[in-house]
Design goal:
Largest sheet: 2 strands, antiparallel
Helix content: 40-55%
Bound molecules: zinc ion
Shape: elongated
Strand order of the largest sheet: 1-4
Distance between the termini: 37 Å
Order of helices and strands: HHEEEEHHHHH
Number of helices: 7
Pfam family, one: DUF6415
Radius of gyration: 21 Å
Strand content: 5-15%
Length: 192
């Protein structure tokens, strides 16, 4: 029985130990880069290709570290708290926001969106590229990245920008909840 593993997009983001300090087996992906246990096809999890340099050559080389499932699972990203994010996003949907409040909300929303974007990508990473849910998720992520790049200028721009980021948060938290089995989009305390 093979234990479920993280999607590759998430495994690629896990920092791995310095290659120079590892054994030959670890460098060649036949042993776990963390605990050095010898890996089999059933126990190994690929961590994606990683760049490295060595004094003997003047260009960047690539290696393919692998980990055992236990070590990879221990380094999995924490689940994103979509219910709290949604509640925070609703603060920008309220009334007339003073510019200073809007600006501080926008800072918070940016941090949340940077956490959500990789989580949404991870949630659809195992789907085929042409899958409707994957394409929809990528379109949502693309729009959210555009909103993250935007820099508000001029009077009233702060509040409009906070509102835009809040909408992106609501879209991505819904997307994440829909794409993650066992998650529910209901906020605790709201009637269903
Ligand atoms: Zn290990």
């Amino acid at each position: 029985m093979t234990a479920p593993t993280l999607p590759l997009s998430a495994r690629r983001r896990i920092p791995v130990p310095d290659r120079a300090r590892l054994t030959g087996e670890q460098r060649h992906g036949t042993a776990c880069v963390w605990c050095a246990v010898v890996l089999s096809p059933e126990t190994a999890a690929d961590l994606g290709h990683r760049p490295y340099t060595t004094p003997s050559v003047d260009y960047v080389l690539t290696w393919w570290p692998r980990g055992c499932r236990a070590c990879v699972a221990a380094r999995a990203p924490l689940p994103v708290d979509t219910a709290t994010m949604r509640a925070m996003a609703r603060q920008a949907l309220d009334v007339d926001l003073p510019a200073a409040v809007a600006a501080s909300l926008a800072v918070m929303y940016r941090g949340m969106l940077r956490e959500l974007v990789p989580a949404v990508r991870d949630a659809v990473d195992d789907l085929p590229y042409e899958h409707t849910d994957r394409r929809a998720a990528e379109a949502d992520v693309h729009r959210a990245l555009g909103d993250l790049d935007h820099r508000p200028r001029g009077p009233g721009a702060e509040a409009a920008h906070a509102l835009r980021l809040a909408h992106a948060l609501l879209v991505l938290t819904d997307r994440l909840d829909q794409s993650t089995p066992g998650r529910t989009s209901a906020v605790p305390g709201t009637p269903t």
